[in-house]
């Protein structure tokens, strides 16, 4: 069987100086992509700046026989986002693949969360994805090709103590994906969200000993690279990956209940009496667009 390769493709990976992003960059470099390794080089909680991590990954890709350049801009401003994409376009003429991966943590319980903790996390994860993806999509549209990844988290999908800011930002990315996939579908741009799980400096203090190898970040790369391949036609999906396990998760709805009976007003008690049916999830359905929800109401419209 022919191996998937990325020859002729230009990939930008944000936050690729270490951890999970570094593995994407190395893997794409090995499979023939021209890679822009972006990393501001901040601490786990977003302080400082250091160009050495991105530079080191570029050196590794080149040593392996690949092509790569570094970018040290922050994802969290419009100027930064444009500079990152321009770096790809000015050097390699285009961008085909964008992996939004840069991230920081400012974990605090909700009652102790400061405005700064909230804003910084939003700026990097949520605003950062907007700042980098918008200029990328402009180029992808012209070339009628694009593969984009947003990096979500199980914290947003399912919850995690002390991560209300992070979880909200991560779920916000699913919100961007759900609408943007519709806007760019006709330009052959596919967007998916990955919720990775891996040992990195972000999780080093949380995972038990031994997880450094069991949950190595390289286990996330095969799925993400597959989603970035030209042959992938899936868009708007969410995947969870870690330790060599890969699965899909989705926002679904149950059948619900049509309670309205003519013009008779419904009461709170009508809801109480039907709460089991309203909450029932035995027939979960995923929707390509928010408009699909109207199907449930059809008998009433
Ligand atoms: P990491 O801390 O090893 O790498 C994140 C990289 O992003 C760092 O090199 C950092 O310098 C860079 N970065 C931070 N702010 C930046 C900015 N404004 N501009 C450019 N670069 C910036 O973390 P890890 O674990 O590799 O995480 C990668 C992504 O995966 C993050 O988005 C994270 O939230 C997400 N994630 C990771 C999980 C895990 O188990 N490690 C779990 C769920 C999500």
Q: What this model shows, in words?
A:
This protein has 301 residues and is of the alpha/beta class. The protein contains eleven helices and ten strands. A hairpin with a 2-residue loop joins strand 7 (238-242) and strand 8 (245-249).
Please state the CA-atom Rg, rounded to the nearest Å.
21 Å
User: Considering DSSP H and I runs of 4 or more, what fraction of the residues is helical?
Assistant: 25-40%
Oligomer: single chain
Judged by helices, strands and strand pairing, the structural class is alpha/beta
Biggest pleated-sheet summary: 8 strands, mixed
Quick synopsis:
With 301 residues, the chain is an alpha/beta fold.
Keywords, separated by commas or semicolons:
single chain, 301 residues, alpha/beta, 8-stranded mixed sheet, two-stranded antiparallel sheet, 11 helices, 40% helix, binds 1,4-dihydronicotinamide adenine dinucleotide
Topology readout:
Layout: E1 10-13, H1 19-30, E2 34-38, H2 52-63, E3 67-71, H3 78-92, E4 97-100, H4 115-143, E5 146-151, H5 154-158, H6 164-184, E6 189-197, H7 211-214, H8 221-227, E7 238-242, E8 245-249, E9 252-253, H9 268-273, H10 275-279, E10 285-286, H11 294-297
Parallel strand pairs: 1-2, 1-4, 2-3, 4-5, 5-6, 6-7
Antiparallel strand pairs: 7-8, 9-10
């Amino acid at each position: 069987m022919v191996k998937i390769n990325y020859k002729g493709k230009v990939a930008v990976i944000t936050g690729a100086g270490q951890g999970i992003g570094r593995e994407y960059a190395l893997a794409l470099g090995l499979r023939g992509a021209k890679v822009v390794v972006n990393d501001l080089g901040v601490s786990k909680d977003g302080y400082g700046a250091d160009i050495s991590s991105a530079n080191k990954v570029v050196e590794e890709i080149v040593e392996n026989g690949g092509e790569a350049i570094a970018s040290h801009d922050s994802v969290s401003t419009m100027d930064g986002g444009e500079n990152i994409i321009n770096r790809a376009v000015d050097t390699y003429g285009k961008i085909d693949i964008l992996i939004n991966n840069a991230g920081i943590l400012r974990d605090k319980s909700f009652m102790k969360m400061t405005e700064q903790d909230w804003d910084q996390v939003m700026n990097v994860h949520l605003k950062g994805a907007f700042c980098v993806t918008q200029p990328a999509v402009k180029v992808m549209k012209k070339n009628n090709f694009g593969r984009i990844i947003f990096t979500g988290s199980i914290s947003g999908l399912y919850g995690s103590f002390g991560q209300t800011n992070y979880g909200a930002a991560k779920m916000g990315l699913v919100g961007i994906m759900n609408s943007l996939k519709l806007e760019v579908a006709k330009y052959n741009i596919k967007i998916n969200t990955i919720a990775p799980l891996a040992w990195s400096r972000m999780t080093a203090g949380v995972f038990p000993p031994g997880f450094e190898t069991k949950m190595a970040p390289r286990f996330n790369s095969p799925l993400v690279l597959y989603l970035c391949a030209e042959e992938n036609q899936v868009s708007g999906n969410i995947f969870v990956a870690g330790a060599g396990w890969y699965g899909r998760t989705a926002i679904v709805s149950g059948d619900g209940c049509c309670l309205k009976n003519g013009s008779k007003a419904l009461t709170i008690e009508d809801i109480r009496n039907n709460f089991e049916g309203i909450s029932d999830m035995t027939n979960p359905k995923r929707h390509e667009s928010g408009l699909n929800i109207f199907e449930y109401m059809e008998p009433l419209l």
